[in-house]
TrEMBL record:
Cell division as UniProt keyword: yes
Lineage top rank: taxon: Bacteria
Residues forming coiled coils: 67-120
Keywords: Cell cycle, Cell division, Coiled coil
Protein name: Cell division initiation protein
GO terms for biological process, alphabetical: cell division
Length: 229
């Protein structure tokens, strides 16, 4: 085909440069050169036409091959999308399972901590109650000794009774105060445990949200859009 164009360009040049015939639009061209170029064009055209016909003959084969490649590409894209969906689902299930394990472990640890706190609080309460009773017993015993020693002195005896009652009241008040402090300590630990459980539940909810919807960019880059509902 290149020779055909080249010969035509030479013919155009010959005509453009040909000497004109006076008083007419005709020109004088070298017959031999023109005929030679026309022969070149005639010789070159059959081969080019045959090549073009071969292309036309192979058109159906080319189209069929292109369609087959397109179908293979589509099948590959679908397989890749399914693999991505399966991977995303497996990852979401793993995240959810891990969140559940963390929640179970946190709850178990919280229960153990609660039991430990309760036992320590009960032991501390018992200790403080016993200390109050011991102080009460000591105060009563001291009051009795003081009463026996001062039995003849009414005012002294009355003062001893008052002091003994005051000591007993202070012992009870101290026991009550320590019990209130212990209850406040236990309540604070339970509040921390409640916040820990709330954070764990938020982690579980986040895992569930990841499981509900996952975009697949590789599928989109192949020309398809897939979503999981």
């Amino acid at each position: 085909m290149y020779r055909v164009f080249e010969a035509l360009d030479e013919l155009v040049t010959i005509v453009e440069e040909a000497r004109g015939v006076p008083m007419t639009s005709s020109c004088v061209v070298p017959r031999g050169d023109v005929l030679e170029l026309l022969d070149d064009v005639r010789d070159a055209l059959p081969g080019e036409v045959d090549d073009a016909q071969d292309v036309l003959d192979k058109r159906d084969e080319i189209v069929s091959k292109a369609r087959e490649e397109a179908e293979q590409t589509l099948a590959s894209a679908n397989a890749e999308a399914e693999r991505l969906v399966a991977d995303a689902r497996a990852e979401a299930e793993e995240i959810l399972a891990q969140a559940r394990d963390d929640a179970d472990r946190t709850i178990a640890e919280g229960e153990v901590e609660y039991r430990n706190l309760t036992e320590r609080a009960r032991a501390e309460s018992d200790r403080m109650v016993q200390a109050g009773r011991d102080a009460y017993d000591r105060a009563v015993e001291e009051g009795r000794h003081e009463q026996a020693r001062l039995v003849a002195q009414t005012e002294v005896v009355q003062a001893a009774h008052g002091e003994a009652a005051r000591i007993v009241d202070e012992a009870h008040a101290e026991a009550d105060r320590q019990r209130v402090e212990c209850d406040a300590y236990v309540d604070g630990k339970l509040a921390e445990f409640s916040e820990l459980l709330a954070a764990t539940l938020r982690t579980v909810d986040s895992g569930r949200n990841q499981l509900r919807g996952v975009p697949y960019p590789n599928a989109r880059s192949a020309g398809y859009d897939y979503q999981v509902h």
